[in-house]
């Protein structure tokens, strides 16, 4: 009698693992980086919108982290479209020049944010415009190259 629930549990766990993305695949690596970027950007935006207490040191550190992260996911877009459940539209591979242009724009905007975060003393007003440009760069790429 006790073996049946154990078998059911094992079956459920095995089936749940079948649909996941391999974390070592290009798609898995870029998804992990994009998730880190989203979390970091949300933290920064939260500080600027009053949802989280503004902390100069934490803002600086996260702005630097976002700049570093913004340079990482692009290497994990293989030359040919990868199979699987990806939010990337086929246009990523069909319009590489434009995709790279938007990736470079994001990197430039995160660099500007990191630079603006070096102001002493650091105030939300000093970095709000730079954060808004980062968010606009993300949105521009998502509108053209992300399916959902």
Detailed description of the structure:
It comes from Pseudomonas pohangensis. Keywords: Electron transport, Heme, Iron, Metal-binding, Signal, Transport. Residues 1-16 form the signal peptide. The chain is mostly helical. It has a single domain, classed as Cytochrome c/b562 (Four Helix Bundle (Hemerythrin (Met), subunit A)), CATH 1.20.120. 68% of the residues lie in helices and 0% in strands. The protein has helices at residues 3-18, 26-48, 56-69, 91-94, 96-116, 124-145. It starts with a helix and ends with a helix. The model is unreliable at 5-18 (pLDDT under 50).
SSE map:
Blueprint: H1 3-18, H2 26-48, H3 56-69, H4 91-94, H5 96-116, H6 124-145
Helix pairs in contact: 2-3, 2-6, 3-5, 5-6
List keywords for this structure.
148 residues, mainly alpha, Four Helix Bundle (Hemerythrin (Met), subunit A), 6 helices, 0% strand, elongated, heme binding, metal-binding, Cyt_c_prime
In short:
With 148 residues, the protein is mainly alpha-helical. It is 68% helix and 0% strand. Keywords: Electron transport, Heme, Iron, Metal-binding, Signal, Transport.
**What's the CATH superfamily, by name?**
Cytochrome c/b562
Query: Helix count, per DSSP?
Result: 6
Q: Approximately how much beta-strand content do the residues carry?
A: under 5%
> Domains counted in the coordinates: how many?
1
Overall spatial form:
elongated
InterPro entries: Cyt_c/b562, Cyt_c_II, Cyt_c_prime
Binding site for heme c: 138, 141-142
GO molecular function: electron transfer activity; heme binding; iron ion binding
Keywords: Electron transport, Heme, Iron, Metal-binding, Signal, Transport
């Amino acid at each position: 009698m006790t073996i049946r629930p154990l078998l059911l549990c094992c079956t459920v766990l095995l089936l749940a693992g079948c649909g996941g993305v391999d974390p070592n695949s290009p798609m898995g690596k870029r998804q992990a980086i994009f998730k880190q970027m989203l979390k970091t950007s949300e933290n920064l935006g939260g500080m600027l919108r009053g949802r989280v207490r503004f902390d100069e040191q934490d803002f600086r550190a996260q702005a630097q982290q976002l700049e570093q992260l913004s340079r990482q996911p692009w290497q994990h877009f293989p030359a040919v479209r990868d199979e699987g459940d990806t939010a990337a539209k086929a246009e990523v591979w069909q319009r590489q020049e434009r995709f790279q242009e938007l990736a470079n724009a994001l990197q430039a905007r995160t660099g500007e944010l990191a630079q603006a975060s070096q102001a002493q003393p650091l105030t939300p007003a000093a970095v709000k415009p730079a954060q808004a440009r980062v968010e606009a760069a993300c949105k521009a790429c998502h509108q053209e190259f992300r399916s959902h």
